[in-house]
Amino acid sequence: MDEVARSSNAPFFVAGGTVPPGAPSYVERAADQELYEALLAGEFCYVLNSRQMGKSSLAVRTIAKLNDAGVRTAFVDLTRLGATGADPERWYAGLLSEAGRALGLRTEAMAYLRANPELPSAARLFSFLRDEALQRIDGPIVLLVDEIDAVRSLPFSADDLFAGLRELWNARAIDPETSRITVCLLGAALPGDLIRDPRRTPFNVGRRIELRDFTPDEAEPFGVVVGPARLRRALEWTGGHPFLTQTICVDLSNDSSLSVDSLVGRRYLDARARESDTNLADVANRLLGNGDPSVTDAERADTLSLYERMLRGKPVVDDEANPAAARIKMSGVARLDNGLLKLRNEVYRRSFDRRWVRANMPGQENRRQRKAFWKGALRAVAAASCVAAVILYFAVANARLARTNASLALTAEKQRDQARYDAYVASMRTLPLINQENNFSEINRILRSVEENPARGWEWKFWHRLANRARVDIPLGDYSSPTYTPTVSRDGRYVLLLAASLKRIGVFDLQAGRLARDIDLDIRKIDPASGVHFWLAEKIRRVLVQVGRRFSSYDLDSGKEIARASHPNLYIADDVKLESGTVTGGLAGRKASLDLETLKVTAGPL
Question: In principle, which of 243, 394, 476, 512 could form an S-S bond with 52, CB 3.0–4.6 Å?
Answer without folding.
Answer: 243
